[in-house]
Design brief:
CATH superfamily of chain B: P-loop containing nucleotide triphosphate hydrolases
Bound molecules: guanosine-5'-triphosphate, magnesium ion
Strand order of the largest sheet of chain B: 2-3-1-4-5-6
Number of helices of chain A: 31
Radius of gyration of chain A: 58 Å
Helix content of chain A: 40-55%
Oligomer: heterodimer
Strand order of the largest sheet of chain A: 1-27-26-25
Distance between the termini of chain B: 41 Å
Order of helices and strands of chain B: EHEEHEHEHHHEHH
Strand content of chain A: 15-25%
Largest interface: A-B, 64 and 40 residues
CATH class of one domain in chain A: Mainly Beta
Strand content of chain B: 15-25%
Structural class of chain B: alpha/beta
Number of strands of chain A: 30
Number of strands of chain B: 6
CATH topology of chain B: Rossmann fold
Chain lengths: 877, 261
């Protein structure tokens, strides 16, 4: 496959040049702006005006108008023509003589007085396109002579030529090119570079100029193109180094020129066009009797023996598009990038981006996604171009229209895949990953809605896990477009999230409830019910909570009540009023209990109402269990356990109320004992425990519990009370108790109590209470401990007494000392304790004679009760 | 490919008789595969990004016809890789007879490597590809995409060595010692002192473009060795900035025909 880089357009046709004269041939051409000069073998110069004509279809053609022709009078072919437009001269080589001709009249310029305007014995000459001399009205020329092995450098002026330098060459030169001081020469057996200023030379490579015509073509600053053995076009710079790989011509190449980025060469029957960028042959044009190929100011002109043509480069963009059409992406990009320096920067960027995008789509069409992505990225593709390939992905609201002319040939994905579902799927997978990558980058700027909506649709369709992540995070999915799509794919949970994201929590809940109730099918979350509860739990919209809690509680009260109990205490969430919740939960005792437990036990709200309510609820539960014909023991134990715990721990509930509720209930004796304890009716409580329940450990525990926050005296009273109850019951006089046959039992309980809790009792009082007949042995542990305790307290108090006494003496001593000197109290001096001034004469003196307010000392003493009073009053002023 | 526009910092040239596998070595290194080649016409070059440096690697044509171009390719080279075929004694002899003189144009501190390619044909250990990236190499990959007749090349591609078809070990015609000896003679030819030059074991390689054996080692060693040369060149450029030869635009703007009609 090849590129169409150039088109051959006729410029001067045979008729115009020579009419029907058969033996006239073109020998040389020169073009300067619109002026075309043709030298012929019959020693004529023809002057044409060449106009570019562009047809309505954009096709270029040339119209040539003959201005003049002139016989030079030498009967020999005109070998070479060069324009020096600043001088208005043509430099002509004919019959071995170089001379000047007026560009307009074609008259030969006569020699000026100062010097000749002719050079003889010339085989070839060249113009320095990179002149070293700054004079604009002077042209530098390199001349090869047939007589000497030299190159001569001339300055050409309007009416004279002047030899400025002559350098000898090792062999006869036969072709020359000049750039700055550098002569590039084809000698008989090799090419060389010669600096005519310094005389240094550099051999390039061998070439037999007699066998094959050499080509020495200056192509850019200090760079030359040379015909090399084997039909190569070699590049060489002034240092003798090749910086580009050679191009491969035919052996019979006649002429060559560079028209960036192409090397155009002519041989007997073809024009070949190679790219300098990749050295590849890009185009071949057939051209019979080719004779001359030269470039003039970037325009490549060719001549056969009879006619002149222009090789018109096709616009770069056309060439690139042609390459892209044939899917030669790499070449297209090389060509584009190679042309960078020939195109204005901003224009290049636009072109380059577009080509990259097109290249991306070509790769995409071939499912080469990696390459595609890279090109899209470099080409800064509007992602919507890609999205729009996938039917229905862009939201209806999107303002996007594909760029024109289109970046690719595909109508849509189906067209691209030709019905191959596997391909479609791979393309979709690619888009998913691509959009996923770009959605948070600047690529998505300005089209986030389109990107996110497309992504949502793809995720939904492909059952992709990331759907939920997308919706749960910041996104720009368009609601109107996404709803039907998510419904279509039964992504109701996701849809709910989207509603939520758009502030439509109610819609979200309705949808989810339908899923939980089985009206809609979506298995995304098996715990959707719990999710809803959580959702309500942290919803800031209280109306919503009230509306949907009902459904949640109906579904499962224990979990449903989490809406109220698990509500996080965050600042941004409005609080629920507990009374409202209790009223709301009213009918549902199970949920209500849970909620009250939450208030009382977890949040420890100290409100009589809640505590009483909970206690009543517990009680009712117990009573209802008891009323059953055969109560479930486990449940009952558990329910009673809760009740008892609450009754014991809380001191806020209304005891009388509860007591009233269980007055007649003989099964709840323990609870009643607790309640009596709460009322400080300890005798009643102990009576129940000892006589009704005969539960001595509980009775003991009761004493400890009931006195737990009281002082030791209180506890002592209670224990004495209990002991009393035991002993009363054990007296034989107490017929009732004896009748029950528990006398011995109660006695033992009394003994155990004394032996275990001896320290609580007042031993003296106990001894008075105990029946005469009890053995000492029985009470040994109790008595032993009692004696030791009383001993201990006696001694402790003696020590305390002694210490107090000595302290008292110390203070007396201080006081006597202070009395000797006055203690000053003034309004200026502050009290050492509160730092306020004194307003009245009555003060207290701290040890050391420091006066302080009386009330300050009083304060200090009450604040630290362990501290004994260290002060003594003083009335001194 | 687009990087071809960059200016190379240093030049490396592959020299050697036709058919020794210069092009194949470069392909293996640059494209990481072994594919069918056509005998190189003229020359070709690749740009390799090596750290911050651009290294141009020239693949030359071994055919006699293009022999004359060799000096030009070698001009200014910082390293020359002289390549022979281990199964072909003549290919080593040619290095000394034909190619050594081409290197006269190379830098005075040019580094020379001597590489015996096609080691896979004689040496079983060269079947284990030794590549730096540690990836298993597809040893037999041959891209047979060129089914159309190759009209371009005047000289037809020589057939692959028969051994590569049969899979039998070939007789090794060139030993490592031969290569080391040649290296010694090259140093003498260059008038270099053996002691102050790089030791032979550092610059004499046996490689296989087919299996990838030693190929990365060869090129990477060379790159490391030319690094000082790059640094010196960069330094020189800072001292005396030279004209940018790539800048062809500048030339067009300075025309002889000023004030053109
Ligand atoms: N078995 C084997 N064959 C190889 C190896 N390297 C190259 N070849 C084969 O040798 C032949 C020549 O390889 P090229 O790389 O074209 O040789 P070249 O040195 O570039 O030849 P010219 O371009 O003509 O100078 C081809 O058929 C390759 O397949 C190798 O390491 N092992
Ligand atoms: Mg090759």
């Amino acid at each position: 496959m090849s590129v169409k880089a150039f088109e051959l357009v006729p410029a001067v046709e045979r008729d115009l040049l020579m009419g029907d004269k058969a033996r006239i041939n073109i020998e040389c051409i020169e073009c300067c702006g619109k002026h075309l000069y043709v030298g012929t073998n019959d020693c004529f110069i023809h002057h044409f005006l060449l106009d570019e004509v562009t047809s309505s279809k954009g096709k270029l053609s040339y119209s040539a108008q003959k201005l003049l022709h002139k016989y030079l009078g030498l009967k020999k072919p005109v070998a070479e023509l060069r324009a020096a437009s600043a001088l208005e001269r043509l430099i002509v080589l004919c019959d071995g003589i170089v001379f000047l001709v007026d560009m307009v009249t074609l008259e030969t310029v006569p020699s000026a007085a100062g010097g000749g305007a002719k050079i003889r014995s010339v085989t070839a000459f060249c113009i320095n396109e990179n002149p070293v001399n700054g004079d604009p009205f002077c042209v530098e020329m390199g001349v090869l002579s047939s007589k000497r092995r030299t190159v001569q450098i001339y300055m050409v002026y309007e009416d004279r030529v002047q030899l400025v330098k002559e350098v000898t060459t090792p062999e006869q030169p036969c072709a020359v090119s000049l750039d700055g001081y550098f002569l590039c020469l084809a000698l008989t057996t090799q090419y060389m570079i010669l600096n005519y200023n310094t005389g240094t030379s550099q051999d390039l490579f061998p070439y037999n100029s007699e066998e094959r015509r050499p080509i020495v073509k200056r192509i850019s600053r200090e760079e030359f193109l040379l015909a090399a053995p084997g039909g190569l076009g070699m590049f060489a710079n002034a240092e003798g180094i090749s910086q580009r790989a050679p191009v491969n011509w035919s052996e019979s190449v006649i002429g060559a020129a560079v028209c960036f980025p192409y090397v155009v060469a002519l041989d007997e029957s073809f024009i070949t066009i190679h790219s300098m960028l990749d050295q590849q042959l890009k185009q071949t044009l057939s051209f019979r009797d080719g004779h001359i190929l030269q470039d003039f100011e970037g325009k490549v002109i060719l001549a056969s023996i009879k006619a002149v043509y222009v090789s018109v480069p096709l616009p770069l963009e056309r060439q690139i598009q042609d390459l892209l059409v044939s899917h030669r992406v790499e070449e297209a990009l090389i060509l584009t990038e190679g042309a960078q320096r020939n195109i204005p920067k901003d224009k290049f960027q636009i072109l380059h981006k577009r080509i990259l995008q097109q290249a991306g789509f070509i790769h995409f069409g071939q499912l080469q996604f990696l390459e595609a992505k890279e090109h899209f990225r470099k080409g800064q593709l509007d992602v919507r171009e890609l999205i729009s390939l996938y039917p229905l992905l862009l939201p209806a609201s999107s303002s996007f229209t594909r760029c024109h002319p289109p970046l690719h040939e595909f109508a849509d994905l189906n067209h691209l895949a030709q019905g191959d579902q596997e391909k479609v799927l791979r393309c979709k997978k690619f888009l998913i990953s691509y959009l996923g990558e770009v959605r948070s980058t600047e690529v998505a700027n300005g089209c986030r809605e389109d990107v996110d909506t497309a992504l949502l649709k793809l995720y939904a369709e492909q059952d992709h896990d990331s759907l939920l992540d997308l919706l749960a995070s910041d996104n720009a999915c368009v609601l109107a477009d996404s709803v039907p799509w998510l419904e279509k794919y039964h992504k109701y949970f996701a849809l709910g999230l989207l509603y939520h994201y758009h502030g439509q929590d109610s819609a979200a809940l309705q949808l989810w409830i339908r899923v939980v109730d089985g009206d809609l099918q979506d298995s995304t979350r098996s715990d959707l019910y719990e999710y809803i509860v959580d959702f309500l739990c942290s919803s800031s919209n209280l109306d919503l909570v009230w509306n949907y809690a009902d459904w949640a509680l109906r579904k499962d009260p224990t979990t449903g009540v989490h809406i109220f109990t698990k509500r996080p205490g965050r600042k941004d969430l409005p609080e629920l009023n507990p009374d409202d919740v209790i009223t709301y939960l009213g009918k549902d005792s199970q949920a209500l209990i849970l909620y009250l437990e939450h208030l009382v036990l977890e949040r420890r709200i100290q409100k009589e109402k809640f505590h009483t309510h909970l206690a009543v609820m517990y009680l009712e539960k117990v009573l209802s269990l008891l009323s059953e014909s055969s109560p479930d023991e486990v449940q009952l134990t558990e329910a009673r356990g809760r009740l008892q715990a609450l009754l014991r721990e809380s001191s806020l509930y209304r005891v009388q109320l509860l007591l009233g509720k269980m007055e007649n209930c003989e099964q709840l004796l323990l609870e009643r004992a607790t309640l009596h304890g709460k009322l400080e009716e300890h005798d009643k409580a102990l009576h129940i425990l000892v006589h009704k329940l005969r539960d001595f450990p509980s009775a003991e525990a009761f004493c400890i519990w009931a006195s737990s926050c009281r002082d030791s005296e209180y506890r002592q009273q209670l224990f004495h009370l209990l002991l009393g109850v035991y002993l009363d019951g054990s007296l034989p006089a107490n017929a009732q108790a004896a009748a029950r046959g528990g006398t011995g039992e109660l006695e033992m309980a009394a003994v155990d109590l004394l032996n275990r809790h001896g320290e609580v009792f007042d031993a003296v009082q106990v001894l008075r209470m105990l029946p005469e007949g009890w053995s000492l042995q029985l009470l040994r542990p109790f008595l032993g401990r009692a004696v030791r305790a009383s001993m201990h307290s006696c001694r402790t108090s003696q020590i305390a007494l002694g210490l107090a006494h000595s302290e008292n003496l110390q203070l007396l001593h201080d006081r006597l000392k202070e009395r000797k000197k006055p203690i000053f109290v003034s309004k200026k001096k502050g009290c050492h304790l509160c730092h306020n001034t004194f307003s009245e004469p009555a003060v207290v003196c701290l040890p050391g004679g420091v006066p302080v307010h009386t009330h300050c000392v009083a304060q200090r003493v009450t604040d630290s009760p362990t501290k004994r009073q260290l002060t003594n009053s003083s009335n001194h002023t | 490919m687009p990087d071809k526009m960059k200016r190379p910092d240093v030049k490396l040239v592959l020299l050697g008789d036709m058919n020794v596998g210069k092009t194949s070595l470069l392909h293996r290194y640059m494209e990481r595969k072994f594919k069918e080649t056509v005998s190189t016409v003229g020359g070709a070059f690749f740009l390799k990004q090596w750290g911050p440096y651009n290294i141009s690697i020239w693949d030359t044509a071994g055919r006699e016809q293009f022999h004359g171009l060799g000096s030009m390719y070698c001009r200014g080279a910082a390293a020359v890789i002289l390549t022979y075929d281990v199964t072909n004694w003549q290919s080593l002899a040619e290095l000394e007879e034909r190619f050594l003189s081409l290197t006269d144009t190379a830098n005075h501190d040019c580094i020379y490597a001597i590489v015996g390619n096609k080691a896979d044909l004689t040496d079983p250990k060269a079947h284990l590809s030794r590549t730096s990236d540690g990836q298993p190499e597809d040893q037999t990959e041959c891209e047979e995409e060129r089914t159309e007749p190759q009209v371009l090349s005047a000289c037809p591609t020589p057939p692959a060595s028969p051994a590569s078809l049969s899979g039998v070990m070939l007789h090794k015609q060139v030993t490592h010692e031969d290569a080391v000896a040649l290296y010694g003679r090259i140093l003498r030819y260059k008038g270099l002192d053996e002691k102050s030059s790089l030791p032979a074991e550092k610059v004499c390689f046996e490689t296989s473009a087919k299996t990838g054996y030693n190929v990365d080692a060869l090129f990477e060693t060379m790159f490391d060795l030319v690094l000082p040369s790059i640094l010196r060149k960069r330094h020189e450029n800072q001292e005396s900035p030279t004209v940018d030869l790539e800048d062809s635009q500048g030339a067009h703007s300075r025309k002889a025909r000023i004030g053109c009609c």
